[in-house]
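[Automated response] Your request has been received and processed.

Submitted sequence:
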Amino acid sequence: MAHTSVFEPAPRAQLARWAGWYFLVNAGVLLLLSLRYFSAASLPEGIFARVFSVLAATGHFASFALIGVLIALPLILLVPRKGAVFAFAQVFMALVLLAVIIDTFVFAQYRYHLNGMVLDLLLGGAALEIFTFSGVVWLLFVLLLLGCFAAQWWLGRRLWNWTQRTQRNNYGFIVAAVLASVFATENVVYAWADASAYTPITKQIRVLPGYAPLTAKKFFDRFGLSSAPDTAAALNFQRNSSLVYPAHALQCTAPVAPLNILFILIDAWRFDALTPEVTPNIYRLAASSWRFENHFSGANSTRTGVFSLMYGIPGTYWHAMLAEQRGSVLIEELVHDNYRMGIFGSAKLTSPEFDRTVFAPVKNLRTQSQGDSPSARDQNITDEFRAFLDRPEIARQPFFGFLFYDSPHGYDFPANYPLPFTPSWAQVNYLALNNDSDPLPFANRYRNSVHYTDSLVGQVLDKLRAQNLLDKTIVVVTGDHGQEFNDNKLNYWGHNSNFSRYQTQVPLLIRWPGQGAQRYTHRTSHFDVVPTLLHDALGCTNPTHDYSSGLRLSEVDGQRLLILSSYEQFAVVEPTRTAIVDELGSMDVVDERYRPSNDKLAPPRLAQAMDEMARFYKR
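Generated structure:
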């Protein structure tokens, strides 16, 4: 049979057929490499979950083959030359193969995949300061790189010869149909498992690089196809878990006269919105409280802001906790100590899935409120919490209260509410905003919504006083994240768009019975609240390192770094610079004014952050 030269044109159909088989065989190679991920994370127990592992890996890496074909197809159509197509495909796959091999080693060490921090350490010259690579290791790396290219060169030519000999066969259509069925099946199974809280399957989401399966909880719930258990206890969390959280079981001795604990959480409450004008009721409470004036959330968004507050660890653990339905150690200890639970969220506690993370240990969790607006729902949770305080058992048992107000997030207040701050936008219109917009009317609408929320908090505090409960209750008042009004003149408005202080710094007050007022100016974070409560209120003697990335709030560490997160990004924050790793894994560094900076974080600091984000995974 005559063969075309690599410099001669080749039929597009033959090149496309070769590319399909070439990328498919490489998908098989990647599938074999994926065994290293499962050996590091351990295979789940149960035949059903293990079959899913096979289906998930097969479907996931088959999709890699499809991506490869789609990338190569324009070249095949525009430049149908065998040499050009071969060279592109082989270099592309050799680099992908090398990246996955390196990623398997990163995952084995840190339990997460390649990202900008890791690449900065490996490629930016910092690796030599953190890791010790012997000459043998470097030689193996070079041999691995050359081996990837050589293997791709050999495979490409073998497959070309094979496709030329088997042009009349239709194996490809059969294989494509089978793989499409596998891909669809594993996505439907995962969607069911997510809706049914079946953790042996859901916890596998973090094992494969770039794995993002289908979820459809509302669909399965609507048609009664999910089978979620009634209580979190039925999930048997510890069985074959990939998490080590806490690192050691808590050793706690409940006080003889335990104090009640009440969290008042205000969505989007920025640090400078605690004033006598904006929040008069909370400001009066501050006069007898610990006030932390340099306090940061663990996030710029609700999901990971609440997560960091209630777990005391970075929001990068969110997906693992959700996949395994693991509750906060604080909530678990409160349930163990028989606290009455009064948890009232204005927005639904099912989105984000706080019912399956933070409050997973709580039976009969109240997950939604009445009302057709944030302000109406905020009034509803205030009324229901005040009724909760009237229950007879509150006089006999300690309670844990959680009030999560939403009006500032929605810039909302009742239509007849007197507005203390004017001019104020009649309605929020993000389309009218640009870098030259006057922020005052928008910011005033926000302040009016915070003022309204403060009036509801005043009702709660009055009820605690009337019931003689205020001096028996630790009251924690804070926000989940901040809110920006183009403060840095970079056209950022709202939250969840950057990690500047305007989106991450929040007020924190703690009124502790028997303790006098204090003002603290050292930097604190949401990571510090759980250690403080577990140690000082619940009698837990473990080192905070066992269950948190934080310190007790009174401890001062001027060298600490913060790991802040959003829905897809995270940032390593120091006082004068911030390293941001985006959803694609790239990393940028900005200064305190959020301008690009060439002042990189020191390699040991990056390594410290990497360790902290991996510390609660099994290794």
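Summary generated for your ticket: The longest strand covers residues 260-266. The mean pLDDT is 88.
If you did not submit this request, please reply to this message.
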